[in-house]
């Protein structure tokens, strides 16, 4: 983290140099770029736009490489037990699948560094942009709201992964009093997350934003998810926060019902991973990818050495669904239909003759435009965004939270039913559910609808429950056996270990999380 603090200001300034418009006369009068500092940089609105762009860009760390045949995002999939690997050539990824990861595991280290770099960049924006004069007030407020959302989102991920984490809300330098900060109790971290999101709510953001920037629907959904998490483990705030979660999610649902062309579920699962549907309708917030800057990073879901793209026999197969999880979908579920959320056949080299893959693979992030489809060659440019918040999750948050307030209501039932209707499934009548059976029905839909979007692990931690593919019920977290490795989850797995090098750099982070070697 100290390394990140030293580098972050340079990154913001480089973004400005690359993105900010500069006239010839201005160029001749400019200081050398190497002489730019945060003190003399944040002077015009274009600098504010460049700075917030750098925060968005840094969120893409989750797609960066983590050794051979692996990406950072696989941290949040390998631990769930819903996926396995066909290659087994990355020892760090194997350790995650085997639940023997530690403070040296590269994915763990990269996530910590990536999240705190986002936080550091957002802190620069929040500290420096208010002083830019002259600047349109609405533009300034909007940028600050976006920065608070992005900081909250990063801290929300960090606190769920490590528990107590350093709470840093101001830019740091080597002379800062808290340059080597201690860890802050989770309650205080969550308070800051809520404060940031409430401020973002009031920042004048539009309900939707087709450019991919933060919007009001995303803010409200994330806030509802934060409240839902606070209601569960480890904070266990219960009914008060279930109500906060339900009320906030209902605001989005109410807007969607009144504006069905702006927010709603896609009619087809194909639309979940099409370039033409990015940043609209169901996609409330996405990580933006374009091959001119960075291409879509989900290639490790391609089957190992099978010709499903223009590259011919290729792919790594380092994240593939376990047969048991795929088999857990209800008969007739369109998500499990070939080329729904999974695929067992495709076209040779992307657009040739059909062939059988020999197993079911993840199709949720497959880009036909880039890779090709029947009779149509691919563009070879994988510009597909990666979903972070979908309206499907908003509906499921509401259904779960509202049910926890006593019993399933008609509105909660309708939210669940929308998910199942799209899947082509029959939903039992409202009166057939108890609070307990409706609770598990919603959880089950979360596993089946939101799989492979780096969300399932967080459900396991906040619920202390894990979906059992064999029984179709839910086990306690501790003792549940991940069928991907036949290894049981332990108490220590509720948190990740802190990186060993980071603890050497900053002794104030000690002690290590329980169960992991120092």
Determine the N-to-C terminus distance: 18 Å
Secondary structure: number of strands: 10
| Strand line-up in the sheet with most strands | 1-3
Q: Enumerate the spans where pLDDT stays under 50 for 5 or more consecutive residues.
A: 3-33
Radius of gyration: 23 Å
CATH topology of the largest domain: Serine Threonine Protein Phosphatase 5, Tetratricopeptide repeat
Architecture (CATH level 2) name of the largest domain: Alpha Horseshoe
Biggest pleated-sheet summary: 2 strands, antiparallel
Structure description:
The chain has 518 residues and is mainly alpha-helical. The chain folds into 3 domains: 41-204 and 478-509, Serine Threonine Protein Phosphatase 5, Tetratricopeptide repeat; 206-288 and 389-477, Alpha Horseshoe (Serine Threonine Protein Phosphatase 5, Tetratricopeptide repeat); 299-384, no CATH class. The chain is 42% helix and 8% strand. The protein contains 18 helices and 10 strands. The chain has helices at 2-19, 24-29, 38-41, 45-58, 75-78, 91-97, 106-128, 137-162, 186-201, 216-231, 239-258, 323-327, 368-371, 391-403, 410-422, 435-449, 456-463, 500-505, and strands at 83-84, 283-287, 320-321, 342-347, 354-362, 386-390, 465-468, 473-476, 481-482, 487-488. The strands form 5 sheets. The protein has a two-stranded antiparallel ribbon. It has a two-stranded antiparallel ribbon with strand order 2-6. It is globular, with a radius of gyration of 23 Å. The chain starts with a helix and ends in a 13-residue tail after the last helix.
């Amino acid at each position: 983290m100290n390394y990140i603090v030293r580098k972050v200001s340079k990154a913001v300034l480089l973004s400005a140099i690359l993105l900010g418009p500069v006239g010839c006369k201005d160029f001749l009068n400019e200081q050398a770029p190497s002489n730019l500092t945060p003190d003399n940089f944040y002077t015009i609105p274009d600098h504010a736009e460049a700075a917030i762009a750098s925060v968005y860009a840094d969120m893409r760390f989750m797609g960066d490489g983590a050794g051979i045949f692996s990406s950072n995002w696989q941290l949040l999939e390998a631990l769930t037990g819903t996926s396995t690997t066909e290659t087994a050539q990355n020892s760090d990824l194997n350790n995650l699948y085997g639940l023997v990861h530690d403070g040296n595991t590269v994915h763990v280290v990269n996530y910590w560094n990536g999240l705190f770099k986002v936080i550091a960049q957002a802190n620069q924006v929040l500290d420096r942009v208010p002083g830019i004069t002259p600047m349109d007030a609405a533009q300034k407020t909007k940028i600050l709201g976006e920065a608070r959302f992005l900081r909250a989102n990063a801290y929300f991920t960090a606190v769920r992964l490590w528990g107590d984490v350093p709470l840093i809300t101001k830019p740091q330098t080597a002379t800062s009093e808290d340059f080597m900060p201690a860890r802050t109790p989770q309650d205080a971290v969550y308070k800051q997350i809520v404060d940031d999101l409430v401020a973002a709510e009031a920042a004048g953001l539009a309900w939707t934003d087709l450019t991919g920037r933060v919007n009001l629907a995303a803010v409200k959904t994330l806030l509802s998810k934060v409240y839902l998490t606070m209601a569960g483990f480890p904070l266990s705030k219960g009914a008060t926060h279930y109500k906060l979660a339900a009320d906030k999610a209902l605001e989005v649902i109410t807007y969607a019902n009144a504006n069905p062309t702006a927010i709603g579920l896609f009619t087809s699962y194909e639309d979940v991973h099409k370039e033409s549907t990015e940043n609209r309708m169901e996609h409330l917030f996405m990580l933006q990818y374009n091959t001119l800057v960075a291409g879509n990073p989900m290639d490790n879901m391609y089957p190992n050495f099978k010709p499903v793209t223009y590259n011919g026999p290729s792919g790594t197969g380092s994240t593939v669904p376990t047969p048991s999880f795929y088999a857990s979908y209800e008969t007739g579920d369109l998500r499990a239909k070939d080329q729904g959320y999974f695929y067992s056949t495709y076209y040779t080299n992307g657009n040739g003759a059909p062939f059988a893959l020999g197993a079911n693979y993840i199709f949720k992030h497959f880009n036909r435009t880039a890779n090709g489809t029947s009779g149509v060659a691919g563009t070879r440019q994988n510009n597909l965004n990666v979903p972070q918040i979908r309206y499907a999750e908003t509906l499921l948050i509401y259904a779960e939270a509202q049910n926890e307030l006593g019993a399933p209501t008609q509105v909660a039932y309708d939210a669940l039913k929308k998910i199942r209707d799209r899947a082509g499934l029959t939903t039992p009548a409202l009166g057939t559910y108890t609070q307990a059976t409706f609770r598990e029905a919603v959880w089950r839909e979360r596993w089946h609808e939101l799989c492979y979007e780096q969300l399932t692990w967080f459900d396991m931690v906040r619920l202390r429950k894990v979906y059992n593919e064999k029984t179709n019920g839910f086990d306690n977290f501790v003792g549940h056996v991940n069928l991907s490795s036949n290894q049981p989850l332990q108490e220590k797995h509720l948190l990740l270990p802190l990186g060993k090098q980071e603890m050497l750099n900053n002794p104030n982070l000690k002690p290590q999380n329980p169960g992991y070697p120092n």
